[in-house]
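Hi U.,

Before I forget, here's the chain from the pilot set. I'm dumping it here mostly so it's searchable later in email.
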Amino acid sequence: MSLQIGDRAPAFKAVDQNGKTIVLSDFAGKKLVLYFYPKDDTPGCTAEACDLRDNYKRFQNEGYAILGVSPDSPKKHIKFIEKYSLPFDLLADEDHAVCLAYGVWVEKSMYGRKYMGVARTTFVIGENGIIENIIEKVDTKAHAAQLLS
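Structure:
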């Protein structure tokens, strides 16, 4: 069953790039952009992260926190954050628990080969923990505009 706008966001618990445990309830009373992406430092994921970085002040002004989630390790996340000066935390979902809870760990296919991976998807979660928006067709170069429009 996939999540819909109006559903309660699934609780999660994962470590960020610094090994600090982050849970959904840390964001109670705040709006959260929770974005899932396949892999650090790949062209699409870098474009998406940098677009969010470049518009970070706008998100803060609108009362949003931003949190990225991928199966990469905290160590890889640190490199990615430092390389591109990302101002937000990235969760290391190495066991795919957060991806599974949000229904974004899916079978993908490339060159006829099937494999499991992250479906690039963004959830906007309101102050009350309810999903306000879901973007499944992410424009990596203009993701902030998709979210702030």
